[in-house]
Amino acid sequence: MSEFVTVPRYSAEGQKYLLGKSREFRYLPIKNENPGQPGEQVTFQVIPVKPLNSAEKKSLLGQLFKWRKLVFVLFPFVRLLVITEPGALDLGIFWLSFLASICLFLGTSWQSDYLDHLRGYDLLAPTSADGKNEDMKILAKGWLSASSLYQASWAVLIAGALMGLYLILIRPGLIVVAVVVAALLLILFFSKGRAYKQRGWFDFGLIAIVGPLFAGGVEYALFGTLSPDELLFGLIWGMLFLFSHSVQSFPKVAQLAQYHIEPWLFLKDFDKNKKYFPLFWVLILSLYSIHGILNGRTLMVIVNIGIVAFFTWKWIQSLNRMASPVGSEIKRVSEQGHHLVLMFIFMWLLELIFSDIIRVVLKVI
């Protein structure tokens, strides 16, 4: 049988339960009282530790390796492989940069999950009519202890940092990118006071790290140069990541106010989000079009924009039909938005591949 216990979140006992260091029991947070306040109380369900079944293991791996967001690390490298002249890439540096990026991405993601768990954000997921919450993160489900995830995050962060240090020895200029990224991450994750997701400039930090800093850093590591073209790609990429992240968080909009989470670009207000999402998406597509035209891919860009515009219009119609931030409809629209992002990335990749094929054919002719 399950037992229940309620303690202050930030008490020694509450933090011990959240860290999950017991080998016999898991303390699953199931309810917050006065969330986001100093006197916040957490009710835990105490269950015995048991082996995961095959479905739970599969879901655990999927959430650990962030399949939904890993594409934002993979695509910039695939893009460089496609657009770079054969033989111009140092494959050793390429794969080292790739592995370092994967490690740093996973490490920071796991740190984020760890901090979300300690602060109660991992309970910010819509609950279905039958009381189930299938979108809760793995720590809230008890599939993994927070202390284990914390240790794993530092292990991969250190591995990524060591690979990054080797790259800095090869390209000393990378120290500037490393210092700026490290400073932003320290401010976003570990500064005292209000949690990073409550800071209005969190969106800008996210765009900068995933966008220009990442794209520019990879280009400099591989070629020792930093071009305006790559910085523009980085800006588009960072904005696309923020859009995807925000769309996937949209079903939680009704609960965000409890934690005073109000990023600058996408506010907690449901009706404002319905207006801002399409405007921000159109801005991304506009910058993408400019970038493609400047690189001589006008025809392919027009084709892609035409296809994406059709599905964008269908998504906006679904978005506008929503009357409430509660229920299954908002989750369905969120999934549609995420699929729209993935389709756009796939179309972008096809554009690059076909443009490269045309370039090679023209050279032969």
Structure described in brief:
With 365 residues, the chain is mainly alpha-helical. The protein has helices at 12-19, 54-64, 67-83, 91-119, 138-141, 146-170, 174-190, 202-223, 228-249, 253-256, 270-294, 298-321, 328-364; strands spanning 3-8, 25-33, 41-48.
How much strand content do the residues show? 5-15%
Helix fraction?
55-70%
Q: Describe the biggest sheet?
A: 3 strands, antiparallel
Low-confidence stretches: 126-134
The Cα radius of gyration reads 22 Å
Subunit organisation of the chains:
single chain
Structural summary, described in words:
With about 375 residues, the chain is mainly α. It contains 13 helices and three strands. The protein has a three-stranded antiparallel β-sheet. It is globular. It starts with a strand and ends with a helix.
Spell out the blueprint of helices and strands.
Elements: E1 3-8, H1 12-19, E2 25-33, E3 41-48, H2 54-64, H3 67-83, H4 91-119, H5 138-141, H6 146-170, H7 174-190, H8 202-223, H9 228-249, H10 253-256, H11 270-294, H12 298-321, H13 328-364
Antiparallel strand pairs: 1-3, 2-3
Helix pairs in contact: 3-4, 3-13, 4-6, 7-8, 8-9, 9-11, 9-13, 11-12, 12-13
Provide the descriptors you would attach to this structure in a database record.
globular, 3-stranded antiparallel beta sheet, mainly alpha
